[in-house]
Amino acid sequence: MKGKAERDRLALGRLLLIGVPFAWLGLFFLLPFTIVLKLSLSEPALAQPPYLPIVEWVEEAGELYLAIRLRVQNYLTLVGDGLYLAAFASSLRIAATATVLALLVAFPIALGMARCPPRVRPFLLLAVMLPFWTSFLIRVYAWMGILKDDGLLNALLLTLGLIEEPLVILNTETAVLIGIVYSYLPFMILPIFANLEKHDPSLLEAAVDLGCRPIVAFWRITVPLARPGILAGCFLVFIPAVGEFVIPDLLGGADTLMIGRTLWLEFFTNRDWPLASAVAIAMLLLLVVPIVFFLRLQALGRLR
Amino acid sequence: MTTARPVREARPRIEPWQDPDAVPFVRIQGVTKTFGEVYAVDNVTLDIFKGEFFALLGPSGCGKSTLLRILAGLERPTSGRVLIDGQDMTDVPPWRRPVNMMFQSYALFPHLSVRKNIAFGLEQERLPRAEIAERVAEVVRLVHLEGLEDRKPDQLSGGQKQRVALARALVKRPKVLLLDEPLGALDKKLRDQTQLELVNIQDRLGLTFVIVTHDQEEAMTVGSRMAIMREGQIAQIGTPSEIYEYPASRFVAEFVGEVNLIEARFASVNGTTMRVRAPALGIEIVTDRPVPALPGEPLWVAVRPEKMSIAKTPPAETGYNCVEGEVFDIEYLGDVSVYHVRLDNGLFLRATEANKLRLIERPITWEDRVWLSWGPDASVVLKT
Ligand SMILES: Nc1ncnc2c1ncn2[C@@H]1O[C@H](COP(=O)(O)OP(=O)(O)OP(=O)(O)O)[C@@H](O)[C@H]1O
Ligand SMILES: [Mg+2]
Question: Given CB atoms, is B95 within the 8 Å cutoff of chain A?
Fold first, then answer.
């Protein structure tokens, strides 16, 4: 039997252990979230800051009231104005396309890295992460130089005689997709590589021994086992890609409709902070709710 | 002790390797495999007959696994040919070979249930579903896995995993089943039991098994014949008793079982009696299996410890080889005791005796003067 004092100490230790990450989450996630949520329910104003408080002391007929005014109109605008819905839909579509493309590019790279001798793997990992040493913004600008009408890509293709007219890529959705796939590729490669690296090579030998051609063995063994890595990579690319602002702004031109850009416009051009906050909250819910639901299904599936 | 131990069913003594007309089922012809500078398998020629349980035995790194993987097609030999059932398999990829392997690590597919693991090989053959289900059920019964079909590999014990691995290979009805140290991860008791089950299954299905092991007891229990490998080469091929009783070299004598090796020089041959001089023992050793040798040629005499008798008085029989010494140490192993006897010139010999009496009642103890003796039929003269 443990003494009561010791048990109390243990309980306190456990509380501290769990408390630290929770405090962290509260400080850096819950607090900003609450601020944005509050903003999204307030009324815009031509003032500094450009919104009215939602909680106010009001004196009416000599009596003091604590008045809470929640402006739901911001959210109604989101649903009512087709622009926002279109921006949401197009963001989801572009992010999903980019995620699939990134997966197609990243999987062979990760597989190749995982099949390399362990000695060279750290160098390959370093090579994958090397772009992070340069500023993200500069890399996107570099893509502008590559993709523009008289840019490097068109120059190359013209010299090779593959095309007669320069291709218009910059300021199209294609450019946005290229930009997202390029920028988020390491986030797809790393989790898939970490997964593939742990695979037991004798599993593939066993499959081949049991009568599978190597390509069938790949589909039936490697891919299903790599599923957690693939899912992690897809989330890591998809979620930030939905809210991406810099890439559509620099590579996508005026026509590309993405929610990140809409949000930016509301904030800085229209100075409608409440509406912009409502966009942010809606985007968060739109992403978090399905993902939590999906992960829950996954966990249930694993238990079974 | 469990009473429900599987009993080895009586099997007719087939010894196709004795029959000059028998055609070998698996033929390994001059196979060499190099990894860079390393000769993992070095010019191995080996014939295995249909229905054999053939054991490859050798120390770690001698090339057993590599040879087995060459049979499975997972490694390509650098040179040489492999024939199975009369067909040249050297250039046939593993997925087209009538051969299946049970891996040392079992290599069960972690994302598939036991049933799916076992059915995997049959699904590749595109058999009708009903037939697959039937054959899976049959093999599940054979290896006693009933009731575990829907579990995933990580929900199984070591012994159960090993059965799934066996079932997965057996269900394909291969012409040759290859087993790479299949029982390495099991405890002694389960291992003994599984060895006998393996032999029973092999008998009943009439398949050809090739097993790799570094456990000589296992090789002798299951093997109809065995090959002892050393540094990529075959040191000796024979039945377990041939190899134990008549090892061809000091390496084999020392690797399979315990042995006393005595340096000697050729003295004389007279009909079936050979005499060699053993300066270290100060006697001439008599043996009834002469080997051709030149006078004075350096030789070794191998005597198994259990073939040496130990007594406190000199033996009465004449014609026995006999040396005198002092008991230096006694190793008590339960069923037997090993007596380490120090001769007067400092040389050590070992003799084992079955412990028919309890320890305290035994007559021989530390520092007793004893005589070790063995008959002419107990020793083997080795040239290398
Ligand atoms: N893929 C490989 N690359 C390089 N060398 C190898 C390779 N596979 C085996 N070897 C070498 O070939 C030799 C034989 O290896 P093998 O695995 O056949 O030994 P083994 O007899 O099965 O040993 P163990 O009992 O330890 O399993 C060893 O020296 C090993 O280092
Ligand atoms: Mg091995």
Answer: yes
